[in-house]
Amino acid sequence: MTARAADRARYDRATAHLDAPVAIVDLEAFDANADDLVRRAGGKPIRVASKSVRCRALLERALARDGFAGVMSFTLAESLWLARSGFEDVLLAYPSADRAGYAELTADPKLASAVTVMVDDLAQLDLVDAARDGDGGGEVVRVCLELDTSLRLFGGRVRVGARRSPLHSPAEVAALARAVARRPGFEVVGIMAYEGHVAGVGDAVAGRPLRSRAVRLMQAAARRELAERRAAVVRAVRAVVPGLEFVNGGGTGSVQHTAAEDAVTEIAAGSGLYVPRLFDNYTSFSGRPAALFAQPVVRRPGVGVVTVLGGGYPASGAAGADRLPVPYLPEGLRYDPQEGPGEVQTPLLGSPADDLLIGDKVWFRHAKAGELCERFDALHLVEGDAVTATVPTYRGEGRTFL
């Protein structure tokens, strides 16, 4: 029996009492992935990216381990909810236009001390000030400045990297730091720089050797350029804000590279806990798939074909086959190219289909990590061949932030 076949047998035994669709997290794999992230971080703390987990119980499990500290959130409403729930260090990774949220933040000392907001434009501070609620909105807001990490080539005519912050140079970031420092009601406490073109792009894509080599060359050049520029940015901002608390960088795919930079004080990572399919194609690390979902077989249309209920759960990003879930267990199943994964049913082809009966489970891996939790209200935590706990996702707690 292969290791994957053994996992399938365990998961089927563990969930035999549960009807599919169902989602699980293998805690042994989750913990092993957490240990690997800590090892790769080389002593620098890892801030857990909540969008890649979307389950409070599992955020708490990660943060209870040595080497993890703080949460990186994705909306202001989520940040405030986590802070009220006892999370004491929440960095909002994206600027917000949530005026009601800012009114709450600036009126509550506990929230203001726990949540740090992301800024790359003074207009974002205007939104905060407009939301301050008269006499009750006077709390100082903690601010993190975001650096654009994109690699610019040929005089800027070619850009590689996500379109995020407009702040690219040390002078631009330092100028914003000075403007924020002069403004009453705000305090610059951190810098964030997320190199998604390094941390979130696989460099060993099966069957694509030339593309993989090109990605590796691009990423090596991007790491060198960013390490030099990020260090210069930190020096420039510390000249304005000597008490800067943190410099956040990296992601699951670049943990050890980013941690090697002296200027970086902490690493962001989250997908590496679940290890979705988009993180299979890296030379820098390999993890164990920890989060899976199962759909039930509901039809047997013919030889070598079964149909499962639902399953069309595409991930965000540029549309493509790599954004689809992948049939994982039993091994050897594939989509019908005429239909793909569907909203209400998904035909699957391959010889393993002939061994599947109506009601059997087919296990899938999502393309991305936390987005799986937008489809399920609970995660069943598996240890060995048993479900030892069932915990709500954000959706299961009635929280759908985006």
Shape: globular
Mean pLDDT: 93
> Main beta sheet: strand number and arrangement?
9 strands, mixed
Poorly predicted ranges:
none
Radius of gyration: 22 Å
Strand segment count = 19
In quaternary terms, these chains amount to single chain
Key features?
single chain, 402 residues, alpha/beta, 9-stranded mixed beta sheet, 8-stranded parallel barrel, 24% strand
Short structural description:
Helices cover 32% and strands 24% of the residues. The protein has helices at 3-14, 27-41, 56-63, 76-84, 99-107, 109-114, 122-131, 170-182, 196-199, 209-240, 255-259, 271-274, and strands spanning 22-26, 46-49, 68-73, 90-92, 115-119, 141-146, 151-153, 158-160, 186-193, 246-249, 266-269, 291-302, 305-309, 326-329, 334-335, 345-349, 361-365, 378-383, 386-392.
Characterization of the model:
This protein is an alpha/beta fold. It is 32% helix and 24% strand. The chain is built from 12 helices and 19 strands. The strands form 3 sheets. Strands 1, 12, 13, 14, 15, 16, 17, 18 and 19 form a 9-stranded mixed sheet that branches. Strands 2-3-4-5-6-9-10-11 form an 8-stranded parallel beta barrel, surrounded by 5 helices. Strands 7-8 form a two-stranded antiparallel sheet. Helix 5 packs across helix 7 and helix 8 crosses helix 10 (209-240). The longest helix is centred in the middle third of the chain and has 32 residues, at 209-240. The mean pLDDT is 93.
